[in-house]
Write a structure and sequence with these properties.
Elements (H helix, E strand, L loop, with lengths): L3 E5 L8 H17 L2 E4 L5 H12 L4 E6 L14 E5 L2 H10 L3 E4 L4 H15 L7 E3 L7 H12 L12 E2 L3 H5 L15
Parallel strand pairs: 1-2, 1-5, 2-3, 3-4, 5-6, 6-7
Helix pairs in contact: 1-2
Protein backbone atom coordinates (compact mmCIF):
# COMPACT_ATOMS: atom_id res chain seq x y z
CA UNK A 1 0.00 0.00 0.00
CA UNK A 2 1.24 3.46 -0.80
CA UNK A 3 1.50 5.59 2.33
CA UNK A 4 4.07 8.07 1.03
CA UNK A 5 4.79 9.49 -2.40
CA UNK A 6 8.07 11.05 -3.50
CA UNK A 7 7.46 14.03 -5.76
CA UNK A 8 9.98 15.40 -8.24
CA UNK A 9 8.96 18.64 -9.96
CA UNK A 10 10.01 22.11 -10.92
CA UNK A 11 11.19 24.96 -8.73
CA UNK A 12 9.37 27.16 -11.25
CA UNK A 13 5.72 27.10 -12.24
CA UNK A 14 6.32 27.19 -16.00
CA UNK A 15 4.17 28.88 -18.63
CA UNK A 16 1.22 26.49 -18.71
CA UNK A 17 -1.21 27.27 -15.83
CA UNK A 18 -2.56 23.72 -16.12
CA UNK A 19 0.68 22.40 -14.60
CA UNK A 20 0.33 24.65 -11.53
CA UNK A 21 -3.30 23.61 -11.13
CA UNK A 22 -2.21 19.98 -11.34
CA UNK A 23 0.40 20.48 -8.57
CA UNK A 24 -2.24 22.02 -6.29
CA UNK A 25 -4.75 19.26 -7.05
CA UNK A 26 -2.06 16.65 -6.38
CA UNK A 27 -1.31 18.11 -2.96
CA UNK A 28 -5.00 18.04 -2.05
CA UNK A 29 -5.42 14.48 -3.36
CA UNK A 30 -2.52 13.18 -1.29
CA UNK A 31 -3.92 14.79 1.86
CA UNK A 32 -7.41 13.38 1.17
CA UNK A 33 -5.93 9.90 0.75
CA UNK A 34 -3.70 10.11 3.83
CA UNK A 35 -0.57 9.78 1.67
CA UNK A 36 2.47 11.66 2.95
CA UNK A 37 4.11 13.92 0.40
CA UNK A 38 7.90 13.55 0.37
CA UNK A 39 9.74 16.15 -1.69
CA UNK A 40 12.76 18.43 -1.93
CA UNK A 41 11.62 20.90 0.74
CA UNK A 42 11.41 24.03 -1.40
CA UNK A 43 8.68 26.62 -1.23
CA UNK A 44 8.92 27.81 -4.82
CA UNK A 45 7.52 26.58 -8.13
CA UNK A 46 5.37 23.49 -8.55
CA UNK A 47 6.96 21.87 -5.51
CA UNK A 48 5.91 24.71 -3.24
CA UNK A 49 2.38 24.70 -4.66
CA UNK A 50 1.97 20.96 -4.08
CA UNK A 51 3.40 21.12 -0.55
CA UNK A 52 1.24 24.07 0.54
CA UNK A 53 -1.89 22.49 -0.95
CA UNK A 54 -1.22 19.23 0.92
CA UNK A 55 -0.64 21.10 4.18
CA UNK A 56 -3.74 23.27 3.72
CA UNK A 57 -5.81 20.11 3.21
CA UNK A 58 -4.48 18.60 6.45
CA UNK A 59 -1.85 16.33 4.92
CA UNK A 60 1.63 15.41 6.07
CA UNK A 61 4.58 16.78 4.11
CA UNK A 62 8.23 15.80 4.54
CA UNK A 63 10.84 18.09 3.03
CA UNK A 64 14.44 17.05 2.43
CA UNK A 65 16.72 19.87 1.36
CA UNK A 66 20.47 20.36 1.05
CA UNK A 67 21.76 23.18 3.23
CA UNK A 68 23.14 24.96 0.15
CA UNK A 69 19.66 25.14 -1.43
CA UNK A 70 17.76 26.43 1.59
CA UNK A 71 17.99 29.98 0.27
CA UNK A 72 17.83 29.28 -3.49
CA UNK A 73 14.75 27.07 -3.18
CA UNK A 74 13.42 29.11 -0.26
CA UNK A 75 12.81 26.27 2.17
CA UNK A 76 9.10 25.81 2.84
CA UNK A 77 8.10 26.66 6.40
CA UNK A 78 5.52 24.70 8.38
CA UNK A 79 6.20 21.23 7.03
CA UNK A 80 5.42 18.15 9.10
CA UNK A 81 9.13 17.30 8.95
CA UNK A 82 12.09 19.14 7.42
CA UNK A 83 15.41 17.36 7.03
CA UNK A 84 18.47 19.41 6.14
CA UNK A 85 21.22 17.36 4.51
CA UNK A 86 24.63 18.29 3.18
CA UNK A 87 24.54 16.96 -0.41
CA UNK A 88 22.17 16.23 -3.26
CA UNK A 89 23.17 12.57 -2.99
CA UNK A 90 22.03 12.46 0.63
CA UNK A 91 18.82 14.21 -0.37
CA UNK A 92 17.97 11.65 -3.03
CA UNK A 93 18.85 8.68 -0.82
CA UNK A 94 16.72 9.92 2.07
CA UNK A 95 13.80 10.85 -0.21
CA UNK A 96 13.80 7.32 -1.65
CA UNK A 97 14.04 5.79 1.80
CA UNK A 98 10.97 7.71 3.00
CA UNK A 99 8.71 6.95 0.00
CA UNK A 100 6.67 4.02 -1.31
CA UNK A 101 6.23 5.38 -4.85
CA UNK A 102 7.70 8.09 -7.07
CA UNK A 103 5.92 10.71 -9.17
CA UNK A 104 7.39 13.32 -11.50
CA UNK A 105 5.46 16.43 -12.44
CA UNK A 106 6.92 18.87 -15.00
CA UNK A 107 10.30 20.35 -14.21
CA UNK A 108 13.75 21.04 -15.56
CA UNK A 109 17.09 19.25 -15.40
CA UNK A 110 16.96 18.80 -11.62
CA UNK A 111 13.66 16.96 -11.97
CA UNK A 112 15.08 14.91 -14.83
CA UNK A 113 18.21 14.10 -12.81
CA UNK A 114 16.11 12.80 -9.93
CA UNK A 115 13.79 10.91 -12.27
CA UNK A 116 16.63 9.30 -14.23
CA UNK A 117 18.43 8.25 -11.06
CA UNK A 118 15.21 6.66 -9.78
CA UNK A 119 14.73 4.87 -13.10
CA UNK A 120 18.35 3.71 -13.10
CA UNK A 121 18.05 2.38 -9.56
CA UNK A 122 14.88 0.53 -10.53
CA UNK A 123 16.46 -0.92 -13.67
CA UNK A 124 19.40 -2.15 -11.57
CA UNK A 125 17.09 -3.67 -8.96
CA UNK A 126 18.06 -1.24 -6.18
CA UNK A 127 14.35 -0.56 -5.61
CA UNK A 128 11.08 -1.79 -7.06
CA UNK A 129 8.92 1.24 -6.31
CA UNK A 130 6.52 2.37 -9.01
CA UNK A 131 7.62 5.44 -10.94
CA UNK A 132 4.90 7.58 -12.49
CA UNK A 133 4.89 10.61 -14.75
CA UNK A 134 2.07 13.13 -14.64
CA UNK A 135 1.72 16.34 -16.59
CA UNK A 136 -1.00 18.25 -18.37
CA UNK A 137 -1.06 18.60 -22.15
CA UNK A 138 1.18 15.59 -22.93
CA UNK A 139 4.13 17.14 -21.11
CA UNK A 140 6.10 13.88 -20.92
CA UNK A 141 5.51 12.73 -24.54
CA UNK A 142 8.95 13.95 -25.80
CA UNK A 143 10.75 12.14 -22.95
CA UNK A 144 8.87 8.91 -23.62
CA UNK A 145 9.72 9.21 -27.32
CA UNK A 146 13.39 9.59 -26.38
CA UNK A 147 13.27 6.50 -24.16
CA UNK A 148 11.73 4.48 -27.01
CA UNK A 149 14.44 5.84 -29.35
CA UNK A 150 17.19 4.69 -26.96
CA UNK A 151 15.72 1.20 -26.98
CA UNK A 152 15.21 1.11 -30.77
CA UNK A 153 18.81 2.21 -31.31
CA UNK A 154 20.05 -0.62 -29.08
CA UNK A 155 21.34 1.49 -26.19
CA UNK A 156 18.70 0.33 -23.74
CA UNK A 157 16.56 -2.73 -23.13
CA UNK A 158 13.23 -2.78 -24.98
CA UNK A 159 11.31 -2.37 -21.71
CA UNK A 160 13.10 0.87 -20.74
CA UNK A 161 10.06 3.09 -21.45
CA UNK A 162 8.02 0.95 -19.03
CA UNK A 163 10.23 1.89 -16.06
CA UNK A 164 8.21 5.10 -15.72
CA UNK A 165 4.48 4.94 -16.41
CA UNK A 166 2.86 8.01 -17.95
CA UNK A 167 -0.44 8.56 -16.16
CA UNK A 168 -3.29 9.99 -18.20
CA UNK A 169 -4.56 12.31 -15.50
CA UNK A 170 -4.97 12.84 -11.75
CA UNK A 171 -7.91 10.40 -11.66
CA UNK A 172 -5.57 7.67 -12.93
CA UNK A 173 -3.19 8.41 -10.05
CA UNK A 174 -6.09 8.48 -7.58
CA UNK A 175 -7.00 4.92 -8.60
CA UNK A 176 -3.48 3.80 -7.56
CA UNK A 177 -3.70 5.37 -4.10
CA UNK A 178 -5.55 4.28 -0.97
CA UNK A 179 -9.21 5.34 -0.69
CA UNK A 180 -10.01 8.69 0.94
CA UNK A 181 -9.60 8.76 4.68
CA UNK A 182 -12.66 9.35 6.79
CA UNK A 183 -12.59 12.74 8.43
CA UNK A 184 -13.97 13.19 11.93
CA UNK A 185 -17.02 15.41 11.98
CA UNK A 186 -18.38 16.97 15.12
CA UNK A 187 -21.85 18.26 15.74
CA UNK A 188 -22.66 20.96 18.21
CA UNK A 189 -25.53 19.90 20.45
Amino acid sequence: MIRSLLLFCGSRTGHDPAQAALAVALGRLLAERGVTLVYGGGGVGLMGLAARAALAAGGDVIGIIPRALMTAEIAQAGLTEMHVVETLHERKALMHLRADAILALPGSIGTLDELFESMTWRELGIHDKPIWLLGANSYWAPLLALLRHLAVEGYAPPDLPRLAVDLADLATLAALLPPPIARQTYSHS
